[in-house]
Amino acid sequence: MIVNPNTTASMTRTVLEGARSAAGPATRLVGSTAASGVDSVESNTDEVYGALAVLDQVRAGEAAGVDGYVVACFGDTGLAAAREAARGPVVGMTEAALFTAALLAARFSVVTLPPRTREQSRRVLRETGLAHRATVRAIEEPVAEVHDGSLHLLGAVAAEARAALDADAAEAIVLGCAGLADLVGPLTELLNVPVVEGVAAAVTMTEGLLAQNLSTSRAATYAPPERLGPVPA
Amino acid sequence: MIVNPNTTASMTRTVLEGARSAAGPATRLVGSTAASGVDSVESNTDEVYGALAVLDQVRAGEAAGVDGYVVACFGDTGLAAAREAARGPVVGMTEAALFTAALLAARFSVVTLPPRTREQSRRVLRETGLAHRATVRAIEEPVAEVHDGSLHLLGAVAAEARAALDADAAEAIVLGCAGLADLVGPLTELLNVPVVEGVAAAVTMTEGLLAQNLSTSRAATYAPPERLGPVPA
Amino acid sequence: MIVNPNTTASMTRTVLEGARSAAGPATRLVGSTAASGVDSVESNTDEVYGALAVLDQVRAGEAAGVDGYVVACFGDTGLAAAREAARGPVVGMTEAALFTAALLAARFSVVTLPPRTREQSRRVLRETGLAHRATVRAIEEPVAEVHDGSLHLLGAVAAEARAALDADAAEAIVLGCAGLADLVGPLTELLNVPVVEGVAAAVTMTEGLLAQNLSTSRAATYAPPERLGPVPA
Amino acid sequence: MIVNPNTTASMTRTVLEGARSAAGPATRLVGSTAASGVDSVESNTDEVYGALAVLDQVRAGEAAGVDGYVVACFGDTGLAAAREAARGPVVGMTEAALFTAALLAARFSVVTLPPRTREQSRRVLRETGLAHRATVRAIEEPVAEVHDGSLHLLGAVAAEARAALDADAAEAIVLGCAGLADLVGPLTELLNVPVVEGVAAAVTMTEGLLAQNLSTSRAATYAPPERLGPVPA
Amino acid sequence: MIVNPNTTASMTRTVLEGARSAAGPATRLVGSTAASGVDSVESNTDEVYGALAVLDQVRAGEAAGVDGYVVACFGDTGLAAAREAARGPVVGMTEAALFTAALLAARFSVVTLPPRTREQSRRVLRETGLAHRATVRAIEEPVAEVHDGSLHLLGAVAAEARAALDADAAEAIVLGCAGLADLVGPLTELLNVPVVEGVAAAVTMTEGLLAQNLSTSRAATYAPPERLGPVPA
Amino acid sequence: MIVNPNTTASMTRTVLEGARSAAGPATRLVGSTAASGVDSVESNTDEVYGALAVLDQVRAGEAAGVDGYVVACFGDTGLAAAREAARGPVVGMTEAALFTAALLAARFSVVTLPPRTREQSRRVLRETGLAHRATVRAIEEPVAEVHDGSLHLLGAVAAEARAALDADAAEAIVLGCAGLADLVGPLTELLNVPVVEGVAAAVTMTEGLLAQNLSTSRAATYAPPERLGPVPA
């Protein structure tokens, strides 16, 4: 299941479409849109509602027998809680994108949007430890701009990516937002370096974990939670 | 305002009482209990509900004209969103405790509970950069155990703290949970090193920020959010 | 192609067998044994010959139209050169194992063998940046011991893994040697945490990169080399 | 007591004045000027004499019953020795400024002077661990320039601070020198981000430690010294 | 013995000449050229052949009673294996250059060539831990350009070095390639900061280790290898 | 010149004797004892007086035409100021010992004394960046114990060093105090790993810098100071 933490169904469709091209033939991908929350996730406030939506969606997925999950929001909103809720593996698009870029290039750059979300990228870089191999850049566009495709952002993203190749010695580009899958092709052609789209990366990593019969450790950090949610105060 | 992300009012009272001893005479402390959510915050799932509760409480605080906030939960649940919601400064008890310990000792150790929450401490250590000066230890007790005082945990905490002094070369102890203020005195006496309680530390740091007329930067990461919350899907 | 940097064909068979269980149905796995070099890779000296063998094997693979490669030796011997030689992606079992463990657990431990190879694990931890989430342990057995299966090492590996769970707060175990695939099942049962086998992990990551049409960046570090090998002095 | 490590009494007055605005009503601030040493602290040589002066001043403070100390020199000259000499807490303006900035912004920049002192800032960044969230910049002015106020430096500091906001993604500015308190207001207005003055920050942190009855750990690093000073050779 | 991992004898002569000026009067320097391999080491592929050549040369040196070795290739190709093969100490020109620069300057910059080799410098910076004090820059010239002297590169290297002093706050320059010894003088004059040449640095460090009767630890990582090289497959 | 920051002439003699065995035949070593200050350097307070004494001694050395200096105190007391005062290079015994150990072993451990000085070792590990390859241990003995030789400490040091080899995977030992040169031989025999004595290491590194005509960068951090010392207040 591709979990979109925001309520914009068109974005789920866009993301799902992009994910399908990377998924294996035996994989049945299901898109899920937040039933309630925010229509776009940019701020830390958005992330609070996004995390709640992710948790609800994963629980619904569990009831429906979903095998594995991808959190389709740069910053991996709600990922840790989702791991506690799911029997199967849960992969964030950000961590997947960073690990993928690290398999392809000595150094790389994240191009995200808008600038206020750079800290979300840095947070995952801290968690994964890849900060020494990456820089974070941003274009001045709201996430809402990419709900129905992102080709109109090609120029802005390409300009920032070129700056990363030149000034940061980056050798690959990570697209720092869900819904940018349609940029992969044209950007690869323009830049001639690998362009990593995190949802596709996360889908293949989730397939890989399932193929290895691996799921989240229950030893401590992601052990099943004692409480499932709100109780009367 | 001391923001307790869980719904247990007795814990708010305990925490508030501990905080008062450190607060200045001109400071009016208000305790706030989550109106809904979970009665204890330990898991990543709990943190999702805790963050939502923190955000709601800070908004209520804003309506009531609160000047500054302390997030009273080890792990600083909801802190980033709270910063976006509040006009005034917001300080997490974890970051405040770590910075305070760093002012007192070359190395220190966090003694938290239960073991599954160690990752929350490590997360704040990564954010603050103090991991090179600290270790994280835990006792096997649920947070629920400390809702009405924690003196019955003195033996377990003291044993783990002693191990930190001996094996980790720690020179101070950070109490890794709200509601442990009554342990500060006896533990200090037993161990003869500084024992830092994060809520008290955060209260004084919030007072300090207010005295300097400082509040959260609106430049990017904590700029006012465009969306305030759930919209119909 | 699963590239075994040593000359021991039985080890290639063992490794290939383990890898098949994780590979997708459409993937055709080919094992490759070093035509010359050393019968086991443990020392830094062994790695010199192992890297040469990896390069030769990848070149043969290129001639045969291989799509992607897995370097099946803990330490990822010869990986960087292999990336220059291959049109398609090349994944090391070590980096793949570490990234996989990071998707499953907040902290983990590598159990490798023999102790002299711990530095090879640490080197990949430095490159991947995951040192802050991992420890490295070793049992006192030569790699030669695992050429035809490793079940006789279960006790020793389990003991060291248990020490990692207890003393290092590890929540998953990475097997630090190729040829240990038959330990995954019994060890998982004994320890009740995820046990990651790097070759299987690397196979699924290579499949994933291929599914995304991604290959090594040619921007700088892994650009095609000007020289292909020995010239008369 | 605000400890000025240099011999320039006018600077002590300037610093003390700036500090008063942040101090609580119950706090009695005392300024102290080095009785001997150097009239400005910039070089490593200056720091040797500055440290000696700090130690002497703290001892005089102890004799006079001072409760807590602030070292008012960017670089925190003599701080470690002062901690051994004082019964109460001792806070450096640099560490206090960095911790304060970290409570307000995801990233920040130190603007210090002159360029040769950047390493002093980096040293405290290494100790506090905040190097991953900060950059260090400098203007080409001697410290002597700020002994009687610093408004004439507003243009130079603002230019460098703006460069930090733009090029380093800084979200707050730390003033990297004592005696710049009069810049806080105009700079905040110009830049619209928090501007942190370390002496004010350190005064409130010292008040906070006192309110918590916390002082330096005597466990090892800051245990009372066996020797109090020069003995005949 | 100065070990040149490539097959270009003129480069060995150039390097040896540069080394002599730093060596002590009692030191007998011997140059060694790779008997087979590649005529220049730039790519990761080159490093595979270079490492093999280094190992062969060190073994020949052992047979001839050589006391200590310098690996004369930026990136320290084959260093770890050489340490296993030699009774005496082995020093890489890169690690020696970095340690030397660290004794002279708070921050420094490596100017290497061509750009694709920057990762080799970064790898040694990771191993030595000096990444926090250094930047890596490169000029667009192949290593082949320096086989018979490098004065024609003075302009390009000086321009990049000046950029390092200005933009990176570097205070010393490390020449990132063997064979640049003749640049040390003119560059020092132009830049007025220390210019470190790694082969000279490594020669004096090897002399120093010999004077202390120190050689590589045999405890684990560099213990004598069980296998000496290729065996029939 | 071997600069002993304390006033104990017998320690200078012991240290000088140990240094001679490593120095080259053309090197004329001169020992210097602090004319005033403290008779042993352990605490941060001692370091203040020690730094002052180092600065005075280096100035006397400059007047006498000394070519280079070794600071013979673990923690490298006064090193930065000494670099500003000296025309020639200045090497600290701690940095020299750490770099030397890094040339010999993948990991190593410092065995220092007494425990309160461990932070001095950690400070230099932070500066050199070698913390990821080292641990710091201490025996419970005052520095005064080693003023006339240290063979009586062999048992205690050996026990701690063995613990480092076993528990920390150390492969070499750094002696964490001046005056322990007579332990090198017996300890090497007992442990069978390299034992590094910092004064000897620093002497050979200073010789090496002089042989390369290298001295401290004057670019910024260590530029000549404007002020030479105390002025009337």
Task: Describe what this molecule looks like in 3D.
The structure is a homohexamer of 233-residue chains. The model of chain A has no long low-confidence stretch (mean pLDDT 96). In chain A, 43% of the residues lie in helices and 14% in strands. Chain A is globular. In chain A, helix 4 packs across helix 5 (118-128) and helix 4 crosses helix 8. In chain A, the strands form 2 sheets. Chain A has a 4-stranded parallel sheet with strand order 2-1-4-5, with helices on both faces. Chain A has 2 domains: 2-92 and 201-211, 3-Layer(aba) Sandwich (Rossmann fold), CATH 3.40.50; 94-198, 3-Layer(aba) Sandwich (Rossmann fold), CATH 3.40.50. The first copy, chain A, starts with a strand and ends with a strand. Chain A has helices at 9-20, 44-63, 79-85, 93-104, 118-128, 154-167, 181-191, 198-211, and strands spanning 2-4, 31-33, 36-37, 69-71, 90-92, 108-112, 134-138, 173-176, 195-197, 231-232. Chain A is built from 8 helices and 10 strands. With 233 residues, chain A is of the alpha/beta class.
